[in-house]
Amino acid sequence: MVRVRTAVDVLASVPAFQGLHESALELVERDSKHLKLNAGDVLFQEEEIDDAMYIVASGTLEMVATLRDGGLQHLGRFGPGDCIGETVVLFHRPRRATVYASVPSEVLKLSLPLLATLFDRHPSLHNELQRLG
Predict the structure, then answer these.
(1) In angstroms, rounded to a whole number, what is the distance separating the alpha carbons of residues 110 and 6?
(2) Three-state SS for 78?
(3) What are phi and psi of 91, to 5 degrees?
């Protein structure tokens, strides 16, 4: 896959990550993963337990939750620079909704081990992400 934007470019659009030192940005560039989603592809399912958060690099993602009667409730739309799933990583909770791409999209995946290293180097990042959740 051809990367449209580097991980550092993606992080530059997220205020919580803007104060990271160059060495931390290099770590993210090396250890993050770019995922390409086609329209309709599911990024993650409701009730899954995952060890990553995601940042939208391009495209649009939709978040929906299943209602008790089986219907779906639209919870939000995410575009470039938006973080998704930080609550799961910070608080070790199952996913509260399903997220899928409504158009071809690209996301940056930050794993829990990568985030733990970033939190050790930049404790304020943890607080910034908590505010997003």
Answers:
(1) 13
(2) strand
(3) -120, 5
Domain that holds residue 120: 7-132
pLDDT in tens, 85-94: 887 777 777 8
DSSP for 20-76 reads: --HHHHHHHHHH-EEEEE-TT-EEE-TT---SEEEEEEES-EEEEEE-TTS-EEEEE
For residue 6, give the nearest of 57, 60, 61 by alpha carbon: 57
Amino acid identity of residue 39, one-letter, is A
User: Among 26-30, 108-112, 120-124, which stretch is predicted with the lowest mean pLDDT?
Assistant: 120-124
SS3 117: helix
Residue 59 inside a domain? The answer is yes
Question: Residue 14 is part of a domain; what is its CATH number?
Answer: 2.60.120.10
- Our count of domains for the chain comes to 1
Distances (CA, A) of 126 to 41, 52, 62, 81, 86: 29, 14, 25, 17, 10
